[in-house]
Amino acid sequence: MWPSSPWPSSPWPSHGGQAEALLAHFGLPADHRLDDFSANLNPLGPPAWVSDWLTKQLTGLERYPAPDYAAARQAIAAHHQLQPEQVLLTNGGAEAIFLAAALHAGKRAAIITPSFGEYARACRAHRLSITEIALPAPHFTLDIDSLLAGLNGIEVLFLCRPNNPTATLIDMSAMETLLDHSAAIGCHVVVDEAFIDMVGEAPQQASMAPLLARYSHLTLLHSMTKFYTLPGLRLGYMLAEAATIKAAETCQPAWSVNHLAAELVAPLLTDDAFARRTQRWLASERPRVAQALTELGLDVVPSQACFFLIRPSAAQEITTDALFEQLLRQGILVRHSHNFAGLNGEWLRVALRDEPANRRLVNVLKKVLHDCLR
Ligand SMILES: Cc1ncc(COP(=O)(O)O)c(C=O)c1O
Q1: What CATH code is assigned to 50-270?
Q2: Among 73, 133, 267, 338, which is disulfide-ready with 345 (CB 3.0 to 4.6 Å)?
Q3: What's the rounded Cα separation, in Å, for the pair 168 and 75?
Q4: How far apart are the first and last CA of the chain?
Q5: Are 37 and 353 in contact (CB under 8 A)?
Q6: Does the CB atom of residue 115 touch ligand 1 within 6 A?
Q7: 93 CA to centre of ligand 1 in angstroms
Q8: pLDDT at 16
Q9: Can you tell me the mean pLDDT for 96-118?
Q10: Where is the Aminotransferase class I/classII large domain (predicted)?
Q11: DSSP state of 166
């Protein structure tokens, strides 16, 4: 059995990617070829037309963007059947998270964990106290009764749906129970829907946007960087009742979203062919890869997103850290879980990519798991 890889005082990288630090740590050359399965991006994107389209927009960089981003807000509102006053365009989902925390500065927050680390960072930046409500391994499914019990005294709850890194989705009826209860006790609910378009065939039905009409204490956060594979452009938005959006706007720097990103919103949202292609890819690749990973004997959390949380099963002769290291040596970069509260490095997150890449991943995993028996 391979031992755990020692990782001296320096921390594991805080996000996916960051290959240089990992290669240096494991003594691998900087040009060691790596297939990146650590970032959860749509492998089909960006849509083919985006590059030419952006080039044509470059002259617009000579002016400030219109500060209210009216066209983009209108397009997002139409997409979710909301009013433009219920939409705030943001510099990525990351800015939306920080604005949501700013709205509740100094209050008592709860965060469902394990989850994306930026909720805790944003809460700390805005002086919210944090209570963690843990989803139990190995299935990470929510027990709604214990969640409601844990909300006593909490003023704002952050959760991610589907959740990064577990890829689990709290079902809509549990969300409605949560929203009824939280309304009664005066607790705001912030739901990060960054991966909602990756849930399945009818992503608009998976979003909680229609519930905004009934629940004024609900705020939704979206990212457009995952689905459209544009993380370098920075594009996201917040959906909430008009008063919440107005308050969030006062916390946002002027011109926070650049001209290119803002102008791209409407054409992206009307590219139905790209959305359909993505849904076809998810419908075929996700079950196929889930089965292949399970057949390797790994523990695999059922996924409703474009990534999987996996770990060696108790019967396998390898630790998670050693599996991470051997994959890296074989040219596969996955996401460690050392800085996800509650995962303690025991799990690895792997992105779902296109079929040839997914087959490479499964083949390398098979080899590494086989070699550790020798
Ligand atoms: C759950 C979740 N929300 C939000 C974000 C931020 O996305 P963006 O690139 O839109 O800022 C990420 C990025 O990894 C994420 O995983």
Answers
A1: 3.40.640.10
A2: 338
A3: 29
A4: 9
A5: yes
A6: no
A7: 5
A8: 64
A9: 97
A10: 47-364
A11: T
